[in-house]
Amino acid sequence: MVSGDPINVILLGAGTGGTSLLELFARSPGVEVVGIADKNPDAPGLKRARELHIPASQDVAELLSRDGTGLIVDVTGDPAMAEFIARHNPRGIQVLGGMTARLLWNLVQHEAGIQAQLFQAAKLATIGTFTSGIAHDINNPLYLVMSLAEDMADESDPGVIRDHARDIVQAVRRIAAIVKGLTLYARVSSADDLVGVDLNGALDEALKMARYATVLNEIEVARDYVARPVVRGRPEEILQVCVNIVTNGVQAMNGRGALRLSTRREDGLVTATIADTGPGIPRDVLDKIFDPFFTTKEPGKGTGLGLHIARTIVKKYGGLIDVSSHEGRGTTFRLQFPSAG
Amino acid sequence: MVDVFGIPQKNSRGRVLVIDDEADVRKSVTMSLTKSGYEVIEAEDGQQAIGLMNSGDNPLAVDVIICDIRMPKVNGIEAVSYFRAQYPSRPVLVLTGFPDIQLATDLLKQGVVDYLVKPIEREKLAAAVESAMTRSRKAA
Questions:
Q1: Residues in chain B within 8 Å Cβ distance of A140
Q2: ipTM reported for the complex, 2 dp
Q3: Model confidence over A207-265: pLDDT tens digits?
Q4: How many independent structural domains does chain B possess?
Q5: What are the chain B neighbours of A154 within 8 Å (beta carbons)?
Q6: Domain count, chain A
Q7: In sequence order, which residues have a C-beta less than 8 Å from that of residue B33 and are 6 or more positions away?
Q8: How far is B76 from chain A (nearest CA, A)?
């Protein structure tokens, strides 16, 4: 629980430590980053701050002169900085620096590591729920490979043998594509710089995964995509968001219904909408769906982390996620990100 | 392939109806069983299979039914209950891409004679069909 007015924080230092703290503060309720500064104009935290619409500066003195600051967090690691702050802090704003800042940073790094592990574990648990569909989609072409090979073994017509060989190659390609999709999804999120991720591609890839989650395959899919709705992020994380939401939609329809995937790009924002014709989410449940470990699925069918993870990732990239649902008619999720296109 | 519910070909060891939504699987079953001396009729889903079973002059001319579980329209579980109720003397084999012990138990309780998992070797499939065929003849 958070009480009282938000703490307005100025971050000094936009290197690795500053960026981690910026990410944490940006998604923490009750904390408002009012500015970030670093001597190095290429510091990663400054770039990230601009993406999050947080004022970024190279002028520490100017930043310190602003009104309304409640706390200065100094993670520059520069011993001269403490003295500089003392000279430019006439109002005596509390400063968190030196060893205490390092302690805070260590805790943040630790928390980030645990969260990354949790998200990865949740992803692998989701793959567990896809087992039946994956086995089906791999064993069918495998069966074709086996029966064609058996047939070839006692076939003397070179034409038939050639046709069979061609069919085997195609079946193996289908299996390889399934495995490739799965490894792409299961991959640990890279710590590399953010890249442009096309939401259309992410939604399409997510749909392939989600199909494994249903026994029946009578879902009509309508796509209404705009060209190049690109967001900045890590591809694995954006895919995880899409897989979690599309899978929920497909599972809600219990294999029968209509799924509408659409993307839009306007006013510097990119929006993806995922609408299903499932039974809808009851009003009293709607407030809880983003809470960690909240699930309405049977044991073994869901971790209760899907939407929580989706929201955490979306917020990390300066986006928002919302939901509208009508009982008996279906549910629509909307993801919105700053455009990177 | 033969005319649906036509007179079984000479020298045929029997007639098998295979129900699977994937053309690849139907092709595999047909290839394996034809080589083993059976005639094979194919249906894409439970609905089409039920239609076929009820449309011929002599619907019981099918000796064995091989059915997938994961299919659109009438799914495999629904189709199996239908065949068990309507044609209790026709043995039903389930051929699935995903082995599920609970489902297998439920289906065997419903009277399914065998629960086979893809990919299956030609000889094993033929042996399962032959064993089901023997039951079918005893029942007739």
A1: 22, 24-25, 97, 118
A2: 0.87
A3: 999 988 876 668 899 999 999 999 999 999 999 999 999 999 998 998 789 999 999 99
A4: 1
A5: 35
A6: 3
A7: B16, B18, B40, B125, B126, B129
A8: 10
